[in-house]
Amino acid sequence: MKVTFKDISKQYKGKYALKDFSSELENGIYGLLGANGAGKTTLINIFVGILKSDKGQVLMNDVDVRHLGIDFLSHIGYLPQYPQFYKNFEVMDFLRYMCVLKDIPKEQGEKRAKELLDIVNLSDASNKKIGALSGGMRQRVGIVQAMLNDPDILILDEPTAGLDPQERIRFRNLITKFSENRIVLLATHIVSDVEYIANQVLLLKAGQLLKQNSPQALAREIEGKVWMVTVTDETMEEKLNHFHISNMMRDHDGIHLRVIDDEKPDPHAVNIEPNLEDVFLYYSGERERW
Ligand SMILES: Nc1ncnc2c1ncn2[C@@H]1O[C@H](COP(=O)(O)OP(=O)(O)OP(=O)(O)O)[C@@H](O)[C@H]1O
């Protein structure tokens, strides 16, 4: 399976939400990483056909998806940013309903729903009302409905919003489990959602694709630009005013700043190994004061 985005643009009131976005995806997990408002949902909405682009094409195996119509949708599983569930539906009834919408034959859908509920550890909840589930359980129902048609392309828009750390880890493991022989596109602004599971990260800023590479390669690209500097309360201000700081930690030796900059920020600064959060900040961060 191959998906190609070709020069996609979308404007709202003369302002670009997405500008000349081009990328190619093959089987694997892709983290679409960008700050709030970077254009992630716009791209996904264009991809799944909810939104029309002003310009550009989405191709599946080199065919424009607009020519494929319903056939394209049968290849897609989609979990929106704010999934709306019927709270009075029981889990299994909701999944049966989704099978009807997706035109999945009854017996096949029933079997698939039960298998998926088992994989996400929700078999015991299949007769519970959706309104009675925790946020994490509801997200798992969301991913089950996205997987009902055994899609080649799984699209998840901010899927870990509202999950606690343990649920977040479980969810990541689940995505990895489901990623075999599929394209998974996972939009998020939370770096740790994709740092360990994405084969490639697409870094989006103000509607434009800044970078596409593996997390490791992206981190290597900024080697030599991440520094550790120890300061005092008196000398800290100057650093905060001049540099991107990705972390601050205070202990009995002083305040340890993780600084991101092309130049050595202090004669005593030492280089440290970059991570994906540093990459995100290096390319898309504004210097913010709190
Ligand atoms: N219907 C709309 N009308 C006007 N502007 C919009 C509309 N939808 C999105 N935008 C603007 O387009 C830009 C991209 O928004 P988008 O929702 O795609 O970003 P995002 O990366 O998904 O952000 P978030 O993480 O907050 O969901 C933003 O500046 C947003 O304000």
UniProtKB/TrEMBL annotation:
One GO molecular function term of this record is: ATP binding
Q: What's a Pfam family this protein contains?
A: ABC_tran
Q: Which SUPFAM superfamilies match?
A: P-loop containing nucleoside triphosphate hydrolases
Q: Does the keyword NADP apply?
A: no
Keyword Signal listed? The answer is: no
- Keywords carried by this UniProt record: ATP-binding, Nucleotide-binding, Transport
Q: Domain ABC transporter: where?
A: 3-231
PANTHER family associated with the record: ABC TRANSPORTER, ATP-BINDING PROTEIN
Q: Which family is this protein grouped under?
A: Belongs to the ABC transporter superfamily.
What's this protein's name?
ABC-2 type transport system ATP-binding protein
Gene source species: Siminovitchia thermophila
Taxonomic lineage of this organism? Answer: Bacteria, Bacillati, Bacillota, Bacilli, Bacillales
